[in-house]
Amino acid sequence: RAFLRGILNPSAALRFQQQRSEIMNRVSQLVNNFLNDFVATAGLNFRTAEARYRRTSTALLPSLPLRVSVSAKEA
Fold this sequence. Notes:
Elements (H helix, E strand, L loop, with lengths): L1 H7 L1 H51 L15
Helix pairs in contact: 1-2
């Protein structure tokens, strides 16, 4: 019945369509903002975890010289 009223009253139908469009745009904005924040946070957390892993994994290794050269006489 309300649907028929919308057909009979074009201005009401247009107003409904505009409101629906505004709501959908707002929902799309919110979803996009959420996803962008989630991806940015996930990337930041991944980089932080990666840096933390690198720091702890290298700290557990004994400190070795970067280059060990042994001459033929020493060997």
